Amino acid sequence: MESGYPGPGYVESGWLNRAIFALPAAEGSHRRGLGVGPTAPLVMCGPAPVLGWAPQILPTASDDLAARVLDLYRRRDAALAAALRIGLETNEMAMRGGLTGERAKARGGMDQPNGMRQAALGAARLMAEPDGPRVAALAFDGWDMHANEGGATGQLATRLSGLDGAFEELELGLGEHWKNTAVLAVTEFGRTARVNGTGGSDHGTGGAAFLAGGAVNGGRVIADWPGLKTNRLYQGRDLAPTTDLRAVMKGLLADLFRLSPSALGDKIFPESASVQPMRDLLVG
Predict the structure, then answer these.
(1) Exposed e or buried b for every residue in 172-210, given b needs 16+ CB within 10 A?
(2) Is residue 149 part of a domain?
(3) What spatial distance separates the first Cα and last Cα of the chain, rounded to whole Å?
């Protein structure tokens, strides 16, 4: 799901980073990605430069201390100096976007509603800056519910409320840019069609992907719905998969960034020429 390769294996880059790298050089500072969280998700790792931002945990260093450390790194370690310089520039961008003081402090992990909202707010504010990144990746944990999953209330409802709040923060934070934005929410596995003995569900095959944003041609469910009858379940236990997620991802990249079929089928999603981009996902 994150690597974009046809199967599992050791890789060092993700499909979203490779897509950013494939943008024309004229895109300038927009050829940077943004990874939100303590570490960049694999989908955002790769050859394109990536900014990192996470809700603040430690006290903010003074400008004098930052300048002294940067000078030390310049004299001793060029790689660390470059990384620190980018970090300081990102922090300055975040401050211009209002992510200071209490607003920048961590308010729960990224698997909790407050933390999900805060992470999305940070991404939106940084992307809304004139010289900010054009693409961001956020990873929300806590969806593996083998027990006590709940229904209208409980663990699942709590996580979904956080995801809904993250969408809201993106819309508010991006402002006028929201109309040109597409947000793709995907999961690496589905859940079983039946509850297990501990009030949860186990790993399944088919799942759902959500598209949101002002640029999205929404109000639809795109699927060849297989149904939940026993004889329609995959291996008698899971929702049957009907769509290759790479088709959705390719469709978005083709419409948003005008990336060519050859780039999508070879460099960004290797060995995927047979997977055609899904059309008409965006308005216009």
Answers:
(1) ebbeebbeebbbbeeeeebbbbeeeeeebbbebbbeeee
(2) yes
(3) 27
Q: Is 142 helix (H, G, I), strand (E, B) or coil?
A: coil
28 burial level (CB within 10 Å; 0-12, 13-18, 19+)? exposed
C-alpha span between 218 and 119 (Å, rounded): 24
In-domain check, residue 91:
no
- The candidate with the shortest Cα–Cα distance to 23, out of 260, 252, 281, is 260
**Count of structural domains, the chain:** 1
Structural domain includes residue 185:
yes
Instruction: Choose among 46, 22, 23, 24: nearest CA to 35.
Output: 46
Question: How much is the CA Rg of the chain, to the nearest whole Å?
Answer: 20
Strand partners, 190: 204
pLDDT mean values, one per 10 residues, the chain (284 residues)? 91 95 76 87 93 73 78 84 74 66 60 90 90 92 93 94 96 95 94 94 94 96 91 94 95 94 95 95 91
Taking the CB of residue 16, how many other CB atoms lie within 10 A of it?
A: 27
In a domain, 92, yes or no: no
- CB 58: neighbour CB atoms within 10 A? 5
- Residue 210 domain boundaries: 15-55+106-268
